[in-house]
Amino acid sequence: MKLIVGLGNPGRGYANNRHNVGFVCLNHFARTEGIRFDKKQSKARIGIGEVAGSKVVLAKPQTYMNLSGQSVSRLIKKFNINLDDLLVIHDDLDLPLGKIRIRHGSSSGGHKGIDSIITELGSQDFLRLRVGIGRPIVTPGSTQISEADIVAYVLSDFTSEEKQIITQVIPRVSEAILCLLSEGLAAATNKYN
After folding, report:
1. Does the global pTM surpass 0.90?
2. Is the pLDDT of residue 48 over 80?
3. Number of structural domains the chain divides into
């Protein structure tokens, strides 16, 4: 069984935020595969189905981003998931807008949701599908971006121009997930990185 987690913040006010791109991508994947988020379990909205011959649990933690690990660790225990069978989809400031990267392991890169998952699991040995949201622009007269600037940026909505790029990337993320499930990590990284 595979556990595929999209990271984001629950609630309408956050729905179109840059930080919620994990939720948005997982929603699209669920729709294309005919899986509905019809259960609440382990502090998450989940949907269960079969994709490319694998039984999958799709999950959107409802704990808010910075506590995502609480939900993920409970789901891992509940469904007896190996860490090799965990895929987390999340936004990434260090990737240009619309770029995607698939990686196994590595640090959180400062992403609070990934930090929480690594802390709760006691390991960073799981798959990530990172979706680039770019970085905020340094304001004139300033030399660097503050933590407050970053928080404001990730919790703001995509501009109309950015939305056009992200709308094209969302189906590509679904294709990458399918490729991971059916062909494995090496094939998926060759195709999508």
Report:
1. yes
2. yes
3. 1
Domain that holds residue 34: 2-192
Angle between helices 160-183 and 21-33 in degrees, nearest 10: 50
Alpha helix locations (H) across the chain? 21-33, 68-78, 112-121, 147-154, 160-183, 185-192
Distance of CA 174 to the CA centre of its chain: 12
Per-residue pLDDT, 21: 98
Residue 144 predicted with pLDDT over 90 = no
CB 37 within 8 A of CB 57: no
* Kind of pairing between the strands at 2-6 and 86-92: parallel
143 pLDDT above the threshold of 90: no
When pLDDT is averaged across residues 83-94 and rounded to a whole number, the result is: 97
Structure tokens at 84: 């090799």
Residue 96: Cβ within 10 Å count: 11
Q: Which residues are annotated as catalytic? A: 19
Extract the tokens encoding 123.
Answer: 């390991």
CATH code for the domain in which residue 80 is found: 3.40.50.1470
Is the CB of residue 14 less than 8 Å from the CB of residue 67?
A: no
